[in-house]
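#data-curation
PF: Archiving a pair of folding outputs for the training set. Convention for this channel: one message per protein, sequence first, structure tokens after, nothing in between. First:
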Amino acid sequence: MPNAADILIDTLIDWDVKVIFGLPGDGINGVMEALRKRQDQIRFIQVRHEESAAFMASAYAKFTGKLGVCLATSGPGGTHLLTGLYDAKLDQMPVLAITGTQFHDLIETFTQQDVDLTRVFDNVAIYNAHVSDASHMENVASLACRSAFSRRGVAHLSIANDVQEMDSKSRSKRNRPKHVPNRYFQGRQVPDDIELDHAAKILNDARKIAILAGRGAIGAQEELRQTGELLAAPVVKALLGKTALSDDDPLTTGGIGILGTEPSQAVMEQCDALLIVGSSFPYIEYYPRPEAARGVQIDSDPQRVGLRFPVDAGLVGDAKESLRLLNSKLTRKADRSFLEQAQRAMSSWRQKMNTMETDQSAPLKAQAVVRAFGQRITMNGVVVADSGQNTELAARHIDLGTENQFAVSGALASMASGLPYAIAAGLADPKRPIYAIVGDGGFGMQLGEFSTAVRLGLPLKLLVICNGMLNQIAWEQMMFLGNPQFACELAPIDFAKAAEAMGGRGFTIRRFDEIEPTLADAFSVAGPVVIQALVDQYEPMMPPKMPKDYARNFRDALPDTPGHEAIEKNLSRSPLREMMAAGEEEKDLSETTTDLPGTP
């Protein structure tokens, strides 16, 4: 007779789970034995830290659309999962977390590792159950999987050590065996006809329309392009929607926000209507002013409609189907001037980025390395970035197409997510090459996980931006509050040597003329590779258009910031000089104008 752990793993197999990420421990010995007996049906990936297991489960769900599953032992094993699980929660990914506890009759007696993980997980989980016995497991395991899919979030099952090995002899009269189907039922979701007509009227009447596309628009690129063409509307992309349209598509102005482009910001400031497609981009200051533009939003989750902008029409449904229905009601704009203006601005922006990417000055500039790295990414490559200045570099200086996959820790924006994401990508589709751009801060947090990539033999090319700084934090200290940079310096780690020590390959780039030959050598290696680029730690992280308060704060903080002379030198280079000057000019104008149009 199967025990509770057997029932759990058999249920996951029925739900088409192929991979579980985790770390063994005595609190989950029963589950580990059930996995051992089913190695031919489900794969257990041992990680070096439970936080990585949760990040991998979240990323696996992003890359495959399937259920991501992570497993941890009692007490600290379970609590270590939390950061990665919040990543899944905030980015609406279906993930199941399985944790153990101590023996059922010792819970709440102050025994070793006596942590009530159902209480701990109460905020992160949309379904959260403590399994009482094997008969209970048959019901809740299936419901946990269904809940993760249907509510797009984290489900959690906590199982006492001894309960895992109990069989299902005891069963209540109302709990009939096999009364739960182990599959997910999903119907066709389309917007209401009245809302479609309303949305079409708003967009047909508007003169200057902007489209904001997020992760929900991925897979709907043909429909999205048709919408943009019909409305002569520039497509601005939230970071998670980077591959919704190719970066070189003439319809797009690229990213938005502090990591974005100047044309995208101008489009959002000048439009009189905004169409949001599958995005909950969180930075409200980069949206149009509510009184200046009418809004239409497409989202599969009605709770998300109107979350960031007071939209007039909400289309609840799948982006592809909703856009198809909306397009049938749109009239092609004869006036293409708003789109053409954005395209000219985008051409100018690309010239600015090219100036930064071809800068051969010393110390080495990160933009040059990232651009060269990006040019070697294959058409079907999977790209991940960590959180920090490396995210900005990947967003601006790597062009991807719709056949690429791109992922980051979106709404959580957690450091140390990049490497676990890359490993999950390699397991999601072993045929696709994997590329990661991380910073020395985030990579140092989960450095040991590189040995997991080595053990799995993944085709990973990992670029580490080594500037010896938590650079995004340093610039936030200066720009957001006007405080001098403090405590952001990092002790050096030779990541190339660390990669070699873990059985991989390591390479180092120190000068501009080393970029191409070093990348050529690194990309000729089949297995996991670390390429560390030792770059200028005083290179500014500039918004696309420096707000006047950022410029003022930055100037106030600069004299007391370590390395301010080097920072000033970098700011004298084009186009950084012009980007900074724009903010300072706004500062001067604000003395006579209290409310400048277009200021975020």
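PF: Second:
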Amino acid sequence: MSSEESKNPNANVQQFFADQWAKALSAFPSVTADVSQKPGVQFDSSKLQALQQDYVQEAAKLWANGLTSPAASQDKRFGAAPWLSNPLAALTASSYLLNAKALTGMADAIQADEKTRQRVRFAVDQWVAAMSPSNYLALNPEAQQKAIETKGESLAKGIQNLLHDMEQGHVSMTDESLFEVGKNVATTEGAVVYENEIFQLIEYKPLTAKVHERPFLLVPPCINKYYILDLQPENSLIRYAVSQGHRTFVVSWRNPDESLGHLTWDDYIEEALIRAIKVVQEIGGTPQINALGFCVGGTMLSAALAVLSARNEHPVASATLLTTLVDFTDTGVLDVFIDESFVQMREAQMGQGGLLKGQELASTFSFLRPNDLVWNYVVGNYLKGETPPPFDLLYWNSDATNLPGPWYAWYLRNMYLENNMVQPGKLSVSGTPLDLGAIDIPVYIYGSREDHIVPITASYAATQVLPGNKRFVMGASGHIAGVINPPAKKKRSHWIREDGALPATHSEWLSGAQELAGSWWTDWSEWLQGHAGKLVPAPKRYGRATKYKAIEDAPGRYVQQKA
């Protein structure tokens, strides 16, 4: 150390963070190269200058606070005592957060079209999440301390966990050994009353002496198992519907294997959606039923209703759409993956046959939230040798489902890439041109405020496409937690406009909406009862004696199939 440096201890710290800034700037092109596909990255110079000034100021604050940033103690990755009591670890965490903030700021300062900016930001977010010092044993004092305290047992257990997860093909998010479908998840009593090669139809045993005359059909997304709607008795939307006096049915999708790799979107609409609607009609002995679609289940339900309307058939009296994309103008973070070259690649791979493996799809969704759904478990499972706690939702999340390649390729092009379903007559399904404007029935539309898969603006966009009497409700939280929010829990909020107005944009709608405590389920239940018809004696048996008899007890075989 020179005499000048010894007189000015700030010089070393300033030089350290000057070097860090230079490294961040030089590393940035390598982080984004595959995304931008350009030899260099152009920045907005004014934003970059402001970023550098902010970086220097934050570094000065870090020095003034004894090389510990308040942000580090507030970040759950670095909040434990070993991080805070170890000066080197505290500095490592604080400088990482400072550099991460600079990198994400640089991503926002890129001069490019919006699609490229989103892709760069996504790539940087992935890189930043992966580079956290908490992810590495040599830099994680919490994992090191546990290894010392357990005399290496935590490391041995971590290796066992790693080998187990490598064998099963995915990172364990919960203790999967504690769950069994039909035993402690998907336990609402019922029976399979119809099946074909694509789906089983489950009817549930009534919980009330009388039921509404119009049966109720739930269509879950085919990219997941249906039992997200029936996890535990206390958070089951299916059981709730049954308890409200609805004769309830659900589509349980088959987990496709290679023998079903030829199935198309038309097959799913004609042989699953429309077939399920007609079977429920026949079993109920009614001219109309009520239906609900969740996520892509809602997209398929909308397509099926458009096909039926074009055929002058109107078997559905009302529809409920939960976190559903109908207008694909705003697809949120998933848009970073979608362009012509990507869709052409998928069409070449599987457009004429084959499977999209369930684990590939599950991994994609997990990396949309890498810190919460990937690295958190890497640290806990492998560095600390912990077994993640039991959590029914995460067990379901890990129970992956394959997709037929032709279905998936068609969906990518016509929905995510070209947004064709909102263009009247642009698409034909089973030889029938689609026009969503012909679906003139009451529709209950729900969106989750913090949904990263179906943005709230995208959920709301359905109100501007469908012509019937509509009710829009926004719930708190995300894609799943916002939907699975039973009233008894008294959690979260929902928003409703009492005047029923549906202006052009979600922001305009929200400006006149009222926040109400608790679940949206009760509002939806009151709405559905208004379309469910009179009360009649509950059926004594499943199905219909003359045609549809119970095949097996719920949850049936299809949901048991693994990807």
